[in-house]
């Protein structure tokens, strides 16, 4: 009888020891499938609570959409965000997509041309990526050489001067990048999270990068607040000043020209190419009369595309970088001046848009000082605030 407490004590001790051992045995602890993601990005990316990319609200009057073949999902756009900001996508880990397309400047660059790897520079000014999805034009790059945004996304990676995986001059090609990313722990977790396996392919890079870019939207502008109150674009907006409404009318109304290409009435006709309410570029647009190059050497008449006119300036009125593919236009007033009286018929330019040469003459809008100021007032209504600080479009590595 005296042994019973001892036996029971030993039994209790054994049970407790077994429980303790089982709790401390690493083999029994479920591994965290997102350990590398959490270690790299902290609170910036939570696989269990993704940012909202797929369910963003857009106004009912926004109808153009070039992303139907690759609908946005939160998971793929999240992976696209990481790829967009990751400098590992360059040969020497110094350049990312965001190096040339900065959130603080509507995903453009304040420099005329952007720096690439090992002293390289971009051939043209870095285009703003605002509302890239909301355009009838499906082709991308200034010269539209990419048939889709998907194709566009991996071209800079393979550009010798930009990100360097060119397979030229002794540099590796894209296959080397795919192997490089496949060896990164957080990409192993992200690709398994998104696709169910760890395969890193160019098609998957394109799919995710383009979804992230298409998710970048700006509809919190003064223009959108006014457009929601009226039935159509020409109707005066109740929230606009008289100057802004007058500038809008000038933007929308086509000009009337005399026999020598001089405006005799009407507006400035900007909407003929930059079509509201998306303010995207008309796919039929041709060259706008600027045929120089960013380097100042040679001619470039192939440029027929432009980004949306939304967020040309920041919410505080500061320009988001120089304009046109050359960066030769420093501000909005100079842009208006180009179309006002600076269109020239150059025999070199066989691609000039005929809308700029009424009757075969270079257009002369002859806008007054008041008209120019009203146009400037209107164009500033196209800028929002959210796109500059929304965390879902920010650098996840910070």
CATH class of the largest domain: Mainly Alpha
Task: Give the CATH superfamily of the largest domain.
Answer: Cytochrome c-like domain
Which structural class matches the secondary elements?
mainly alpha
Instruction: Note the quaternary state here.
Output: single chain
If you compute it from the alpha carbons, what radius of gyration comes out, rounded to the nearest whole angstrom?
Answer: 27 Å
Total count of strands? 4
Overall shape: it is globular
Mean pLDDT: 94
Proportion of beta-strand residues? under 5%
Query: In percent, how helical is the residue content?
Result: 25-40%
Reported for the largest beta sheet, the result is: 2 strands, antiparallel
**Unreliable sequence segments:** 1-19
What can you tell me about this protein's structure?
With 398 residues, the chain is mainly alpha-helical. The chain has 2 domains: 182 residues, Cytochrome c-like domain (Cytochrome Bc1 Complex, Chain D, domain 2, Orthogonal Bundle), CATH 1.10.760; 161 residues, Orthogonal Bundle (Cytochrome Bc1 Complex, Chain D, domain 2). 32% of the residues lie in helices and 3% in strands. The strands form 2 sheets. Strands 1-2 form a two-stranded antiparallel sheet. A hairpin with a 5-residue loop joins strand 1 and strand 2. Helix 2 packs across helix 7. The protein is globular. The termini are far apart.
Concise summary:
Helix content is 32%, strand content 3%.
Question: How are the SSEs placed, and which strands pair?
Answer:
Layout: H1 3-24, H2 35-41, H3 74-85, H4 97-100, H5 149-158, H6 174-182, H7 185-195, H8 202-215, H9 222-227, H10 242-252, E1 255-257, E2 263-266, E3 274-275, E4 280-281, H11 332-341, H12 369-379
Antiparallel strand pairs: 1-2, 3-4
Helix pairs in contact: 2-7, 3-8, 5-8, 10-12
